[in-house]
Design brief:
Number of helices: 9
Helix content: 55-70%
Number of strands: 4
Distance between the termini: 25 Å
Largest sheet: 4 strands, mixed
Radius of gyration: 17 Å
Bound molecules: glutathione
């Protein structure tokens, strides 16, 4: 097994699905959490290939892009987190890319907005446009799955990303994007419940709560 070190801020953010995928897949890794000054020094020192986090060092070689890390975690582990069936893999990848576009990239500007009214306006526009389209798309895919997950009874990296995303809305951590936005999506809510109850995910949550 390669030596893995995942570096990110001490927050869920983009690294959390990767941490959970590695944990569920029972792949040992160092969960390195840095504060902003340390990140700035790493960036300044040219340690970050694209100047951003997360970075996954594989036997010392820094690599970037969370979607690639998720697939890598799935390939390393034996937990079936990435489907071998090409069409099922397409569904999983499609959801991952959709969430990266809408939930991560489109949300980012509002995270840095300090004026609360402007922040809420940005999030209303996000919800009315790309976010609702993305959630409707996922709900439609779930309607075609035997459930409770995207491709059936087996948890995949796409479900982990969805589970983390839903937990973020349910936690109320994002002003203007609370649990009420999930109301029209019963299948997505059921997926998130099944995700939270998954033994590997529950074990990760318990270990974090005890840390
Ligand atoms: N496409 C990259 C995006 C990475 C990214 O934007 N990271 C943010 C944190 S979530 C970052 O490091 N921002 C600080 C900066 O770019 O200076 C991925 O999926 O990993």
């Amino acid at each position: 097994m390669p030596q893995l070190r995942l570096t990110y801020f001490d927050a869920a953010g983009r690294a959390e699905p990767v941490r959970i995928a590695l944990s569920v897949a029972k792949v040992p890794f160092e969960d390195r959490r840095v504060k902003f000054p340390e990140f700035a020094a790493m960036k300044q020192g040219g340690e970050l290939p694209l100047g951003s986090l997360p970075v996954l060092e594989v036997d010392g070689r820094p690599l970037v892009q969370t979607a690639a890390m998720l697939r890598y975690a799935a390939h390393l582990g034996g937990a079936g987190l990435y489907p071998s069936d090409p069409r099922a893999a397409l569904v999983v990848d499609s959801v991952i890319d959709t969430l990266n576009d809408t939930v991560s990239h489109a949300l980012t500007p509002s995270l840095f907005e300090r004026d609360m009214e402007k922040k809420l306006e940005m999030r209303r526009a996000l919800l009315a446009g790309p976010l609702s389209a993305a959630l409707r798309y996922v709900e439609g895919l779930l309607a075609e799955s035997p459930g409770p997950f995207l491709t059936g009874p087996t948890l995949t990296i796409g479900d982990i990303l969805l589970g983390v995303t839903v937990q973020q809305y349910r936690s109320g951590a994002l002003d203007g994007l609370g649990p009420e936005i999930l109301e029209p999506y019963p299948r997505l809510r059921a997926l998130a419940d099944a995700y939270a109850a998954h033994p590997g995910v529950a074990a990760y949550a318990a270990a974090r709560a005890a840390a």
